[in-house]
TrEMBL record, chain A:
Pfam families: SBP_bac_5. GO terms for biological process: peptide transport. GO terms for molecular function: peptide transmembrane transporter activity. Keywords: Signal. This is ABC transporter substrate-binding protein. Residues 1-26 form the signal peptide. InterPro entries: Peptide/Ni-bd, SBP_5, SBP_5_dom, TAT_signal. One of its GO terms (cellular component) is periplasmic space. The keyword Cell wall biogenesis/degradation does not apply. Residues 88-468 form the Solute-binding protein family domain. It comes from the Bacteria.
UniProtKB/TrEMBL annotation, chain B:
Residues 115-326 form the ABC transmembrane type-1 domain. One of its GO terms (cellular component) is plasma membrane. The keyword Transmembrane helix applies. The chain crosses the membrane at residues 9-26, 117-139, 151-179, 204-223, 265-287, 307-333. Keywords: Cell membrane, Membrane, Transmembrane, Transmembrane helix, Transport. It is a multi-pass membrane protein. GO terms for biological process: transmembrane transport. InterPro entries: BPD_transp_1_N, MetI-like, MetI-like_sf. It is found in: Cell membrane. This is ABC transporter permease. It comes from Olsenella porci.
Length: 547, 346
C-alpha cells in the first residue's frame, strides 16, 4: 500500500510533466472561433449545452423516451400543450378546439401562418401526414408508439395494412383538423399534447432517411446539421417561429453514454444542465443551492429535485394463489418502509408512494391508499392473525440499476413482518420476457406517464386486459367506472371520478406502490432561468443563459 | 508465400461460418424477445408486434406483407436455418441486416459510422504502445539494474494493476478539471467525445486521453516482454561474437539483437491490435467514444441481434487478417521462418 502511494506521487509528477506537454499541444489544437457567440452578459442569445443519453428517435414518428422527446419537442409543436401551473391543457399549434356532443369528434382550429423550418406552411394536412406516419406499418421500422393513436377511427385498418390512410382524420380546410374517435375519450386534448403527435412537411415522406436524423419541424428551434449518433445534436433558433421566439441562439445536446462522465463534463464547465450522479445530491445542493419549486433553475438555486410523473412499484401476480388473499397484499404493503428507501438510497429526493397517482398530478387532494404506508406492527399482526407466516414471497426484478438495494430494504421489512422472502433477479431482457409470460410473483416495474393525466396512471395499469396490467388485475366495477370517467367531458367532474376509482383500486391493492421518482438534475452557473417539467422535458424555448 | 496466404484465407471460411452459426444458435437459446424489448415496459399492441416481426422476417408473410397463420390461427416463425441462409446470402451482397432498436437503420451504416472511430483510436493507441513500450523495454534491458530499469519496472507494475476505466477517470479529472482550474482555463484537454464541427478543439486532440488510457496496460506488457527478450538475446553467443569482432554496442543491438528480440513483442502487439479493433467498451464508455465496442455491448443487452452479428462478423474478419499479417511479418523478422510447402522450403 505504502509502495503504491509513493509511486502514486511519482506517477503524479510524471503526469504533471506530461500534462504540461500535452496541454501545450492541446493549446495548438484549440479552435480559434469561440463557440459561445455573444460577449455581453444579457439574457438573450448564447448556446445552451444540455446533456442527454442517445435518443431512440428524434423524428416524431417514433419519439418516446425522455431523451428523444426532449429534442423533438423543441423542434416540433403539437396541437396542445400542458400547463403545469394551471393543471390543464392549453393551445399550442391549435389556437382552439371544439368537441361534438357525443364526445367523438374533435375539431382543432390551427394557428394561421405557421411555417415549418423549410418554409412550408403548417396546415391540417401536415398533421394528418404526421399522424399517419406513426400508424403506417410500411415505415422502415413501424413505430412502436402508435398506441397513442389507437382511439382514432380507422387507425386499426391502417395499422394492419388494410387502408392507406386513417379515415378518422379529415381536413375540411387548411386550418381545420378533425379527429373522429372510436369511443369517447375526454382526455383526448391531453393526448394531443404528446410531442410525437406533431405535424410533418412533405419532406418527411420524400426523404424519410434524412428526416430521421435531421427532422424539419414547426417548433422554436431547427436542426443545425444532423444527429450524430452517440455524439451530439445541434439546434439553432428558428427566426420565423409563429409563437414567442426563443431567447437562446442555439442548443448543443451533448450525447453521453455514462452519467458520471457527463457530470465530469459539467464540473469542467462544458455542460449547462446535467444529471447528478447517485449519492451526491446533498453535496451538490450545498454547493449550487436548491431550486425553490424543484423545477426551475435560477442562479444560486440550481439543483432540481421536483417530483416526476412516474412511479416505482411492485406488481402482484394475481394468478398466484398466495397473492389472491387480500390480507397478504395488505400485509406486504404495510411492511415496506418506503421512507427508508427514499432516505437511504436517494438522499430523500424521491418521495414514498402512498397510492397510484403521483401527488404532482392532483396537488390539492389526498389520493393515498389506506394500506400503502409503513406500519410494521400492523403488518406483523396481520401475518400472525391470519397465519401467513408460512408463505414464501418472491421478489422479482431486473439486475443492475440499483434495484438490489431497494429490494433488500423491502425484504427486511417483509421478513420482519413474518414472511419468508427470496429474491430473484434477471437481466433486463430476460426479466421483461418473464413479466410478459406471467412467470413472476411480485415484479418490480416503473411507469412513466405519457400524458399528465390521472387516466394515464389508472387505465393502462388497472383496466382489465390493459397492456401494462402485468398482474392481471380485474374488477368489473373499476372497469365500469373507468369507462364512465373517460367519457366525462368536464375536467373537474372527471378528476373527481378518477379519485374515486383510485380509492377503489386502493382497497383491492393490486400493486405495492414504492416511490414516486424525482428529478436529480443541476444547472450551471450560467443558467439564468430554465424550467424542467415533471415529465422531464426542459422548456428550452423560454430558457436563458449568460454568455 | 502466395500459396500460404491463399491457404490461410480459405481457412477464414469455416471459422467465419462457425462463429456466425454459434451466434445464430445463441439467439434462440438466450432469453429475451428482441421485438418485445423494442417497446420496453410499455407493451406493443399485437398488430404492431406482428408488423415488426414481418419487417425483420421473424415470421412468415405473404407477398402482400400479411402474416401467414397456421391452422390454430398463430403466426409461423421463420425457421432459423432459413434466416441463417438469408443472412449469409445478404453478406455476399454487403447487406448486414437492419437494427431492431435503431429505427430499422442498416447495420452496415451503423458499423460504417462507428468503425472508423474504433480503427483510428486503435491505430493511435498501438503507435503509442509500440513506441513507448519498446523504447522503455530497451532502456530497461540495456541499462539493466540502473535507476531507469527500476523506474520502468515500477511504473509498468503500477500500470498493469490500474484498471483502464479508473485511469481514464483520473486523467479526465486531472487534465479536464484540475489543470483547467489551476491555469485559469488556459490549459486543459477535452475529456469526452470525438470532436465535431462545434467542438472546442480540433478533432485530433480528442484522441489523446482515450489513446493513452487504452494503451496504458499494454504498454507495460510490451515493455516487460521487450526487456526480457532483449536480455535473453544479449546473452547469446552470436552477440558475444559480434562484439568480439569489434562491432560497437550500438551496432550489435540495432543490427543483431533487436530484430531477434522483436518476434514475441510483435505477436503481442498484433494480438492487442486485433483486440482493440473489436472495440474497448470501458474506454469508450468513460470517454464517450463513439466506437464499435459499446455499440456491440448495447446491442447484446438489448438483444439487437443484427448488430451483434454484424459487428462480430466484421471483428472476426479483421482479427483473422491481422493474425495473418503478424504471421507473415515473422518471416521478415526471422529469415529462418519460411511459409509454404515443404518442397518450397527445401
Amino acid at each position: 500500500m505504502a509502495d503504491k502511494l509513493m509511486m502514486g506521487r511519482r506517477t503524479f509528477v510524471k503526469g504533471g510533466l506530461a500534462a504540461s506537454a500535452l496541454a501545450a499541444l492541446a493549446g495548438c489544437g484549440k479552435k480559434s472561433t469561440s463557440s459561445s457567440a455573444a460577449s455581453d452578459s444579457t439574457a438573450k442569445g448564447g448556446t445552451f449545452k444540455f446533456y442527454i443519453g442517445n435518443p431512440v428517435a428524434i423524428d416524431p414518428y417514433n419519439a418516446q423516451e425522455s431523451e428523444g422527446t426532449q429534442v423533438e419537442h423543441i423542434l416540433f409543436d403539437a396541437l396542445t400543450d400542458y400547463d403545469w401551473d394551471k393543471e390543464k391543457v392549453v393551445p399550442k399549434a391549435a389556437k382552439s378546439w371544439d368537441v361534438s356532443d357525443d364526445g367523438l369528434t374533435y375539431t382543432f382550429h390551427l394557428v394561421e401562418g405557421a411555417k415549418f423550418h423549410n418554409g412550408d406552411t403548417v396546415d391540417a394536412k401536415s398533421f394528418k401526414r404526421g399522424w399517419e406516419r406513426i400508424a403506417n406499418p410500411k415505415m422502415a421500422t413501424p413505430s412502436d408508439i402508435n398506441y397513442h393513436l389507437a382511439p382514432i377511427e380507422g387507425y386499426d385498418e391502417m395499422n394492419s395494412g388494410d387502408a392507406t390512410e386513417i379515415s378518422g382524420l379529415t381536413c375540411p380546410d387548411d386550418n381545420t383538423f378533425v379527429v373522429k374517435l372510436k369511443y369517447p375519450m375526454a382526455d383526448w386534448p391531453y393526448v394531443c399534447a404528446h410531442p410525437a403527435l406533431a405535424p410533418v412537411p412533405q419532406a418527411a415522406l420524400d426523404d424519410p432517411d434524412s428526416f430521421l436524423v435531421a427532422p424539419i419541424g414547426n417548433g422554436p428551434f431547427q436542426m443545425d446539421g444532423k444527429w450524430v449518433s452517440d455524439q451530439y445534436i445541434n439546434v439553432k433558433k428558428f427566426d420565423d417561429y409563429y409563437g414567442t421566439k426563443a431567447n437562446l441562439d442555439a442548443i448543443n445536446f451533448s450525447i453521453q453514454k455514462d452519467p458520471d462522465t457527463a457530470y465530469r463534463e459539467f464540473e469542467a464547465g462544458n455542460l449547462d444542465f446535467c444529471q447528478i450522479p447517485s449519492g451526491r445530491i446533498k453535496e451538490i445542493e450545498g454547493d449550487k443551492g436548491t431550486s425553490e419549486d424543484g423545477y426551475t433553475v435560477t442562479p444560486g438555486k440550481q439543483v432540481l429535485t421536483g417530483a416526476e410523473t412516474a412511479i416505482y412499484y411492485l406488481c402482484f401476480n394475481l394468478q398466484k394463489k398466495e397473492l389472491q388473499d387480500l390480507n397478504v397484499r395488505k400485509a406486504i404493503n404495510l411492511a415496506i418502509d418506503r421512507q427508508k428507501i427514499c432516505d437511504t438510497l436517494f438522499e430523500g429526493s424521491r418521495k414514498p408512494a402512498d397510492g397510484a397517482i403521483p401527488t404532482i398530478l392532483d396537488k390539492d387532494n389526498d389520493n393515498s391508499w389506506e394500506y400503502a404506508k409503513y406500519d410494521a406492527d400492523a403488518a406483523k399482526k396481520l401475518v400472525s392473525d391470519n397465519n401467513l407466516g408460512s408463505i414464501e414471497l418472491e421478489l422479482d426484478y431486473n439486475s443492475g440499476g440499483g434495484h438490489e438495494d431497494i429490494m433488500s430494504i423491502i425484504q427486511d421489512g417483509l421478513e420482519a413482518a413474518g414472511f419468508k422472502v427470496k429474491q430473484s433477479s434477471q437481466e433486463w431482457a430476460a426479466y421483461l420476457s418473464s413479466m410478459s409470460e406471467g412467470s413472476f410473483f411480485m415484479g418490480r416495474l416503473g411507469w412513466i406517464a405519457d400524458y399528465p393525466t390521472m387516466d394515464n396512471f389508472i387505465y393502462p395499469n388497472f383496466y382489465t386486459g390493459s397492456d401494462n396490467n402485468y398482474g392481471k388485475y380485474s374488477n368489473t366495477e373499476v372497469d365500469k367506472a373507468i369507462d364512465e370517467a373517460r367519457q366525462t367531458e368536464d375536467d373537474d367532474e372527471r378528476r373527481a371520478k378518477y379519485r374515486e376509482i383510485n380509492k377503489k383500486i386502493g382497497e383491492d391493492l393490486p400493486i405495492a406502490p414504492i416511490m414516486f421518482y424525482a428529478h436529480n438534475h443541476v444547472g450551471s452557473d450560467r443558467v439564468q432561468k430554465m424550467y424542467y417539467d415533471p415529465q422531464g422535458k426542459a422548456e428550452l424555448g423560454s430558457a436563458s443563459i449568460t454568455a | 508465400m502466395g500459396r500460404y496466404i491463399v491457404k490461410r484465407v480459405l481457412q477464414f471460411i469455416p471459422v467465419f461460418l462457425g462463429v456466425t452459426l454459434i451466434l445464430f444458435l445463441m439467439e434462440n437459446v438466450v432469453p429475451g424477445d428482441p421485438i418485445k424489448l423494442i417497446a420496453g415496459e410499455k407493451k406493443l399492441d399485437p398488430q404492431t408486434e406482428i408488423n415488426l416481426r414481418i419487417k425483420y422476417h421473424l415470421i412468415e408473410s405473404d407477398s402482400n406483407g400479411k402474416p401467414i397463420y397456421d391452422e390454430n390461427g398463430n403466426t409461423i416463425e421463420t425457421p432459423m436455418w432459413e434466416r441463417y441462409v438469408d443472412y449469409v446470402g445478404g453478406l455476399l451482397h454487403g447487406d448486414l441486416g437492419y437494427s431492431y432498436q435503431q429505427n430499422g437503420k442498416p447495420v452496415a451504416d451503423i458499423l460504417a459510422e462507428k468503425y472508423p472511430y474504433t480503427i483510428k483510436l486503435a491505430v493511435v493507441a498501438i503507435i503509442l504502445e509500440a513506441i513507448i513500450g519498446i523504447g522503455a523495454g530497451m532502456i530497461s534491458a540495456i541499462k539493466r539494474y540502473s535507476f531507469w530499469d527500476i523506474l520502468v519496472t515500477l511504473i509498468t507494475s503500477i500500470n498493469v494493476s490500474i484498471p483502464a476505466f479508473w485511469l481514464g477517470m483520473l486523467l479526465q479529472l486531472f487534465f479536464g478539471i484540475v489543470l483547467k482550474n489551476a491555469t485559469g482555463g488556459a490549459f486543459y484537454l477535452p475529456i469526452s467525445g470525438a470532436g465535431g464541427p462545434t467542438a472546442e478543439f480540433d478533432d485530433w486532440v480528442y484522441y489523446i486521453l482515450p489513446a493513452v488510457t487504452l494503451s496504458a496496460v499494454s504498454c507495460a506488457y510490451v515493455a516487460r516482454i521487450m526487456r526480457s527478450q532483449l536480455l535473453e538475446v544479449l546473452g547469446q553467443d552470436y552477440i558475444r561474437t559480434a562484439r568480439a569482432k569489434g562491432l560497437s554496442k550500438h551496432d550489435v543491438i540495432v543490427h543483431h539483437a533487436l530484430k531477434n528480440a522483436l518476434i514475441p513483442v510483435v505477436t503481442y502487439i498484433g494480438m492487442d491490435f486485433g483486440g482493440m479493433l473489436a472495440g474497448a467498451i470501458l474506454t469508450e464508455t468513460v470517454f464517450n467514444w463513439p466506437g464499435v465496442g459499446y455499440e456491440t455491448y448495447r446491442a447484446i443487452t438489448k438483444r439487437d441481434w443484427p448488430i451483434v452479428l454484424g459487428s462480430v462478423t466484421v471483428i472476426v474478419v479483421v482479427v483473422m487478417v491481422i493474425n495473418l499479417i503478424v504471421d507473415i511479418s515473422y518471416a521478415y523478422l526471422d529469415p529462418r521462418i519460411r511459409y509454404g510447402s515443404p518442397k518450397e522450403q527445401g
